[in-house]
Amino acid sequence: MGRGxxxxxxxxxxxxxxxxxxxxxxxxxxxxxxxxxxxASGVGNGAAMERYIEQLCAEIDAASVTAERIGATLPREVxxxxxxxxxxxxxxxxxxxxxxxxxxxxxxxxxxxxxTLEAAPGQIADPVLVEAQxxxxxxxxxxxxxxxxxxxxxxxxxxxxxxxxxxxVRLRAAGVDEVGADLIAGLPYQTVESWEHSLEVATGVGLxxxxxxxxxxxxxxxxxxxxxAGGNRFHAHGVPAEDIAADLYEQACERLxxxxxxxxxxxxxxxxxxxxxxxxxxxxxxxxxxxxLDAHSMLPAPNGAVRFANPDELALYAGAASERxxxxxGEREALEESLFLGLRMNDGVSxxxxxxxxxxxxxxxxxxxxxxLIAEGLMSNDDGRWRLTLHGRLVSNDVFGRLLETxxx
Length: 409
What we know:
15 helices, 3-stranded antiparallel beta sheet, about 400 residues, globular
């Protein structure tokens, strides 16, 4: 492990100004908008992308001023950079260089930093891959979603199984040390058998990390809207029932560890040396700063921490001049975050650490709710560590809601 790797037993407790920073960079452009997507992203032309890069670099250059204005401390040393989206691999090499130049002007990026680039299979041009590696990218996360062609096509993905496999082989041959992929349980026409095929391909093709998400049915995506309306557009009629999607998730939780992909968070699977250091910052409440459309940040402040977020509409995003939603994080909010973020991880939350970091009366109310959830089989208590059970992960939002309701009482 490099010196920058987070200690694996680190607790989800109030952040420290001395913690090294994680940087997230949002690039909200795609070649096509998938029907299930509920992110702030869309199809953009070259002029729109160029204008966005200018705004993005201006925001990065104003980072210290922004932090000072909202009363936050911005650590300078960076141990992880994550370019997400959207499909940031669609940037031109020169645009990538400008983004990294802006980061280099304002932060000290460690030599052993984890630097991740999100990409879609078949959408990383050779010059982009060469430039990304030259700039330090050592981790690529592919939005595969399914290795079954019918399922991929039904939601607007532009790749086939063969192309996905070829892309993974190409990236590993090019010397990319860490190659991960996302899979979605609950896509149209998905069955236990087709899901098993995706898992079999994923575990045998040379990936080092897997993220498994259950399809979100909400008003923020075209597919979600159609399912809720009972319609047939976007292959909504082929979306499996919620209990079947839950079975597929359980199938992954059982199957992946058998192939060396240990589950370390509700949606993430990897051997310990391949865990996403950047994403662990979110769950462990370590400082991170986000730049670009709909990017979120959490930085230390004199009275705890402060969270802020950029606009989620491109028309409202203006780089350094954007209006941001700012929230102070006090003791109660920090406790709530420590619970619902810490419980996402398989390591869980230490009740002892909660007592050491928060007032007794705040923790006591949560302990009562935790006892009820443990009795119902949704949580476990192993040597003072609270963890979600498998069933608890499937209904994690309900579990978190009950814990937070008592914390806020």
